[in-house]
Design goal:
It is built from 4 helices and 6 strands; from the N terminus they run H-H-E-E-E-H-E-E-E-H. The protein has 184 residues and is of the alpha+beta class. It has a 6-stranded antiparallel beta sheet with strand order 3-2-1-4-5-6. Strand 4 and strand 5 form a beta hairpin.
Length: 184
């Protein structure tokens, strides 16, 4: 019989590299904790710091109908905001709401408390669960998916960041050029 040895299963260099990686991760985590380095700011914290306010907002309740449609109700008015018919290309709204509903079911919460859809002055669009506090930044999912939720805000157009312009003189029109027949 031959002697059986496991000593050469992993090369020594691989084990040293793996150990160094674990040691680095632990050191980095400990440094952040000990030095009290703050986590990267959340969009909510950044909006509070920059005093960004909501320019439009709507409380919405989402309910499933027996035929598979999703009825989106304006919680303040009691009116239907939208109805997503079965087969309609709105998988993003259904997916987002499925995830939020799953979290509510796990906490024993029904579909009665509304969600708040907010368009902020910086152009961001947020869906917030009024009960769990969970907030989803719609811009993170791309312009098409964001637009599907933006459509639920009546008369809401995304604000455009403006660049401050030079003050206009009385003899200049809004374009900043001298009025016809005048010189600057």
């Amino acid at each position: 019989m031959t002697a059986h040895s496991h000593a050469d299963m992993l090369p020594r260099g691989t084990l040293i590299t793996a150990g160094a990686l674990v040691l680095f991760a632990l050191t980095a985590a400990a440094t952040v904790r000990i030095a009290h380095i703050p986590a990267e700011a959340s969009p909510l914290a950044m909006r509070q710091t920059n005093h960004v306010t909501a320019v439009a907002s709507r409380s919405l309740r989402f309910t499933d109908r027996a035929d598979g449609a999703v009825v989106i109700i304006d919680a303040d008015k009691g009116d239907d905001a939208s109805i997503i018919q079965p087969g309609q290309k709105t998988g993003f709204i259904r997916g987002v709401m499925r995830g939020l509903a799953r979290e509510r079911r796990a906490r024993g919460i029904g579909n009665q408390p509304p969600f708040t859809l907010s368009l902020w002055g910086d152009g961001e669009l947020t869906l917030t669960d009024s009960v769990t506090g969970r907030s989803i930044e719609m811009t993170a999912f791309g312009s098409t998916n964001r637009a599907s939720f933006l459509a639920l805000l009546p008369n809401a157009a995304a604000p455009v960041a403006s660049v401050p312009s030079a003050p206009q003189h009385n003899d200049q029109v809004a374009s900043g050029h001298p009025a016809k027949g005048q010189t600057s």
